[in-house]
Design goal:
By secondary structure, the chain is mainly beta. It has two domains: 157 residues, no CATH class; 268 residues, Methylamine Dehydrogenase, Chain H (7 Propeller), CATH 2.130.10. It is built from three helices and 39 strands. The strands form ten sheets. A four-stranded antiparallel beta sheet has the order 1-39-38-37, with no helix packed on it. Strands 2-3-4-5 form a four-stranded antiparallel beta sheet, with no helix packed on it. A four-stranded antiparallel beta sheet has the order 6-7-8-9, with no helix packed on it. A hairpin with a 6-residue loop joins β7 and β8. The longest helix is centred in the N-terminal third of the chain and has 6 residues. The protein is elongated, with a radius of gyration of 24 Å.
Length: 462
């Protein structure tokens, strides 16, 4: 057994990444706008989950400002933009006062609104009175693609252009031309605050994020550009996303309803009746699906074939060449090429102590790694021997494993995000809520970033 440490680094270890404003950004549902302010360069949208910053010159969003960056928990009543600099004052009410956010320095400063700043806020009705054509089209502007009707909540205007920016309670920010009445929904963010699954969108760049939603929330999948400047989404009926795969312009989502395949870019979908799907893996012979009832494979002809598994719950999957490694409720199994049943790896057949739930699996180069409730284990590709290290209690129950852009192993947990070095056996935990906003449900990596699906949004780590 390899010894365990929960902090520091050894001589052969990669340095621990410190998660802070410089390398960590959180995305959430920013559709509910509480206040809007506009300057000659920027538009600010204060939402229930963070501050939106839209660059009027570049016509793109800058990374949002959230609770991880000090965004206030109090409701924002008004927003006043600095007309001479990149800053905004947020009015937090009689007990909260004003707080100023400097965009360039990313600094929060509490204090009164300067006398030189105009504290008059444009009302929605006054704004629409300046744009009678838009007022006449109010119903069309506020009706989304699912025919849900929303309301305007705030307004702001700038003297340099005939534009009005209106906040809504579900559509985000809307830009309206006062003269022509033309409008544009500046949609940005996720469908719902909680994310259950993520997958790199290699065909399109960026990341796919599957929502974990309540019945009264929007549901489906969101696409987020790697630079966070743009987002888009497609709505579907599932409530919970567990795992995702993206390949060949297709997105596969394991949900409580079954497995959904979304064909891009038309967002046409098909659902396979494999309820309570928990995990996915891809091999040349098809898409492997783990459920709480067993293991199946969707072949290229779209037919489903069940793999003999004695009805045990499948918790995790990972493909290594033609072999599929299977994390089950009673230990680790494998499906060898050509086999139609799950078998136990020979080296684990006599190890009764490892007949425990395997919550996560991953490949670290040519090494198979698995996480149980108490241990992180990895298999030597040459000797087939397994080594182990105890997981820190501060991680909580492990939920996901992934190799990061630099080869570091990352471990998602219900109480934090772990950064592990297999060579030294060192594991450092970034805890909830100080460095990670909430429980981690899934992890994915692209060549530049690590992405974490959490109960409070999508976390990007550089």
């Amino acid at each position: 057994m390899i010894g365990c440490a929960t902090g520091g680094v050894g001589p052969s270890s990669r340095p621990t990444i410190a998660l802070g404003p410089d390398n960590r950004v959180l995305l959430s549902d920013f559709s509910d706008i509480e206040a809007v302010a506009a300057s000659p360069w920027l538009v600010f949208g204060a939402t229930t989950h963070g501050l939106l910053i839209y660059d009027r010159v570049a016509h793109r969003f800058r990374p949002p400002v959230t609770v991880l960056d000090g965004y206030p928990a109090r409701r924002v009543r008004r927003a006043i933009a600095d007309q001479t600099g990149n800053a905004v004052w947020l009015d937090l009410g009689t007990t909260g006062g004003y707080v100023r956010f400097d965009v360039d320095g990313r600094i929060w400063t509490p204090g009164p609104l300067p006398a030189t700043q105009n504290d008059r806020v444009l009302t929605v009705e006054a704004a629409l009175a300046q744009a009678p054509l838009a007022d006449a089209m109010r119903a069309a502007i506020l009706t989304d693609s699912r025919l849900r009707v929303h309301q305007f909540t705030a307004a702001a205007a700038t003297p340099d252009r005939p534009e009005i920016f209106l906040g809504t309670n579900g559509l985000g920010v809307v830009r309206v031309d006062r003269q022509t009445g033309e409008w544009e929904v500046l949609n940005y963010g996720l469908l719902a605050p909680a994310v259950g699954a993520v997958a790199p969108a290699r065909d399109q760049g960026g990341i796919w994020a599957g929502a974990n939603a309540r019945v009264d929330q929007r549901r489906g999948v969101s696409w987020v550009g790697s630079d966070l400047s743009s987002t888009r989404f497609s709505e579907f009926s599932f409530l919970s996303s567990r795992r995702m795969l993206a390949a060949d312009n297709r997105l596969w989502v394991a949900t409580e309803q079954g497995v959904i395949r979304i064909d891009q870019p038309a967002s046409q979908s098909r659902t396979w009746d494999l309820p309570d799907a928990t995990s996915l893996a891809r091999t040349p012979v098809g898409i492997w699906v783990g459920t709480t009832r067993g293991l199946s494979i969707i072949k290229p002809d779209d037919r489903v074939y069940d793999i003999a598994s004695n009805g045990i719950a499948i918790l995790s999957l990972v493909a290594a060449s033609d072999t599929v490694w299977v994390g089950t409720s009673v230990g680790l199994g494998q499906v060898l090429p050509g086999a139609d049943a799950i078998s136990t790896p020979p080296e684990l057949a006599e190890r009764a102590a490892l007949r425990v739930p395997v919550y996560a699996l991953a490949r670290l180069q040519d090494t198979i790694v698995m996480a149980t409730a108490q241990q992180l284990l990895w298999r030597s590709p040459t000797t087939r021997e397994w080594s182990a290290v105890a997981l820190p209690l501060s991680l909580g129950r492990p939920t996901a494993l992934v190799a990061g852009p630099d080869g570091t192993l990352w471990i998602g947990g219900t109480q934090g995000l772990g950064q592990a070095d297999v060579a030294s056996g060192l594991i450092h935990v970034h805890p909830v809520p100080f460095e990670v906003p909430a429980a981690v449900r899934d992890l994915a990596a692209d060549p530049t970033y690590l992405w974490a699906a959490t109960d409070s949004g999508l976390l990007r780590i550089q």
